Amino acid sequence: MDNDDKIALDFETRIEKVKYIIQSLNNNEVNLKEGMQLYREAQTHLTMANKMLEEAEFELKNILEQTHETSQNT
User: Which of 21, 25, 42, 43 has the fewest Cβ atoms nearer than 10 Å?
Assistant: First the structure.
């Protein structure tokens, strides 16, 4: 796990990192130990990206509910 995991990365950056890791693993560019480390790093990025999606979905639902309530009150 590198320093990127400890700082906030945006969704797109995390997905690009996962794409790069998958490419590296598919091209057999790394040994088994490095491959396992990259795999764990990719899992971390995917978990965080999924969390971002869930949070965005929650926020969107709240906005839509508020908009709907506001339109009903007018």
Answer: 43
